[in-house]
From TrEMBL:
Pfam families: DUF1751 (PF08551)
Keywords for the protein's UniProt record, in alphabetical order: Membrane, Transmembrane, Transmembrane helix
Keyword Hydrolase tagged: no
Lipid bilayer topology: Multi-pass membrane protein
Bias type Basic and acidic residues, positions: 300-315
Native organism: Dendrobium chrysotoxum (Orchid)
Biological process, per Gene Ontology: retrograde vesicle-mediated transport, Golgi to endoplasmic reticulum
Gene3D superfamilies attached to this UniProt entry: Rhomboid-like
SMART domains (alphabetical): DUF1751 (SM01160)
Positions of the UniProt region annotated as Disordered: 264-283, 296-315
Name of the protein in its database record: Rhomboid-like protein 19
Lineage: Eukaryota, Viridiplantae, Streptophyta, Embryophyta, Tracheophyta
GO cellular component, one term: Golgi apparatus
Amino acid sequence: MDPVTRPPQSRSFFSGFTRLCKGLALVLVAGHALLQLFPFAVSYLALIPARTIPFAWNLITAGYTEQTLPGVAISVVGLLFIGKLLEPIWGSKEFFKFIVVVNFLISICIFVTAISLYYITTQESYLYTPVSGFHGILSGFLVGIKQLMPDHELSLFFLLKIRVKWIPTLLAMVSVAVSFFVPESASYLPTVLFGIYMGWLYLRYFQKRPETGLKGDPSDEFSFSSFFPQFLRPILDPVASLFDKMLCGKRLRTLSESSGLVLGGNPLPGSDPIDASRRRERGARALEQRLAAEKLAAADGKEEGASHGDVSESV
């Protein structure tokens, strides 16, 4: 083909994926291919509560094992595009740590829930239904985007505009509603719900903030009640405050005192919720700049394609 008439290559929307995300995407594809070649492998890779002991490794492998083709397609696309936004802000190490820790916590919660439901209902299906998939981590990623740019608006189906901070809540509501009408989807529901909660738990209390050396995001804008409508918050805040004091307040006081971040009884900049707000503003600006750059590159690609078309016609 003549170079003049060669169609332009996409340089923006389908580029810029990180090496870590591409490697994890390859793991997801390879895991799905392995199940297609050897179906019995699902007993060793997926989370089957009755077999978790002694096959304890499925607490880790279940999150990276997709049993269906639509599942692996959604997981790979979500990982690549969301990872392209979050990893540059969090850093590769923290991004990978988030995936590993949240995946393990999700598996632990599903295992405990399945065992509990079995003892309550005596239905063996809770023990022998294989549960796996990366959708729990994707749900946690949405919480990370909520933390960084909560007021950014997205257009759903070109009709409805919704702020990013409500996306995890909307996903949870839709997942619960669908499970009532599509029984097969009920197996995905615990993973989605635990993914949202464990993603928030990790970011709220345990993610290390490199600018201060402290952990978590104690701001009110990222509290547990921020996932719910305003009228429910007076009911949820007193309960959530108990966990804040146990998991967050004591840690922040200890770290502040040990690192000299308290002066005259007041926290220095970077050790209070104001710093968390500034961090979100920086993250939102970085995300918006990246999105704007991609839109500009896409527009340039279209113009370049049009100019190539004109040249080819003239030739």
